[in-house]
Structures are given as C-alpha cells and as structure tokens.
Amino acid sequence: MYFKHDWGVTKVSIKTGEIVSIRHYSGVNSFKSAILGYHEDKVTVKLTRDFSIINFFVGDPVVISLYVKEEVISIGCTISQFQNDKGIVELIIDSVERHPERRQYERYPVSIYADVKKELSRKKYLAIIKDINIYGLCFYSKEEFEVDNQLEISMYVEMNILFLNVVIVRKVKRENYFEYGAKIVYKDASTMNVMEEYLKKVQKIYENDIKKFKI
Description:
Blueprint: E1 2-5, E2 8-11, E3 19-23, E4 31-39, E5 42-47, E6 61-68, E7 71-83, E8 88-97, E9 108-118, E10 125-133, E11 136-141, E12 150-157, E13 160-173, E14 178-185, H1 189-214
Antiparallel strand pairs: 1-2, 3-4, 3-6, 4-5, 5-8, 6-7, 7-8, 9-10, 9-12, 10-11, 11-14, 12-13, 13-14
C-alpha cells in the first residue's frame, strides 16, 4: 500500500490482525485496536475493549499509529463508518508522515477538541483540529466562517488549554461541516514556545502509545 505526502511516496504494509493505536478527541488516552482488513485507502479496525460510550461519529478525524520496519508511522484518517455495538471502525486514510525533519515545518496528524470564536466575541463553537504545524492548522467546525476571518482557538492538549489567534486562509464545505485551513498568528513568544514544545512531544506520544500496546 502506497501513500502520498509532501516529499514523496511511502510504502506501508498493513497486515490483518496487526495491533495499532487510535487517537480520537473523545478520549484522553489512545485506544488499542486490531486491523480487520484494508483495501486501497480504507482500513477497518476493531477496538479491543467495549467503547460503546465513546462518541465516535462519521467524519471525525483520528490518528492511527503502527510499526513499519521498526519505525512508528502516524497516519491521519477520517471515520467513514462506525458500528457502535461491535466497536468496528472504518477509516479513510489521508496521509502518512515519515521523517518530518525533511519538511520545512513538520505537520502532524491529530484529533484534538477545541473551542473557536471570532475575535472580540464571547460565543464559542465546537471545533476539531485535524492536523497542525508550528504556523498553521486544519480544523473542522459546523459553524461557518469566512476566509480572512480572525478567530481565537482554545486547544485542549495534555489536560491543558492553549490559546491561539488564527486567520482563516482556506474554506471547504463538507457534507456535515466546514473544513478550514488557518494561519497561526503569534502575539507573544511564550505561546509559540509552548506550541513548539507540544509539537516536539506529539510523535513521542504516538510512539509510546503503540509501544505500550505491543508490550
């Protein structure tokens, strides 16, 4: 199975029965899962515990992590189907990130809960961040904003809240939500430092997830 990303094409072999980890914004910790099958850009996984109370929805972003030749690969995906009673999730694969040091600004697939609002407004809306790098992010929201709108995002990471100022640069209408690309505007050095530290930890978090489940 081959996946395209910004610097080339990566071959990734996904085997039926293989243990992987899943990150979804509804859970503080990752979910241990097993591959049931795959075809082209679709992967079906089985959650290995009863997660019937977890709020999985079609269209949600998730991250799956697995070993490929002793290297941990993190794959951004979108939920296309979810059988709640069986704990079976079908995913559409978006991209694969390998050797992020080869990118000018590494981008990480994530699934993070956030609140978003227009600057100087008190009304907040739910947002889910799908991927992020030091200067930008992609998020989903049912609320409609416009390109060039200036927003404030409260991003929930590692039991903390990171406040970001962003400007919308891209807008795409999906079936049940809008997908936005946004540029991060740093107004102080401390916020940028916190973001840098978080991004340094992201891949390590994914590595620890899959190592724990493999053990």
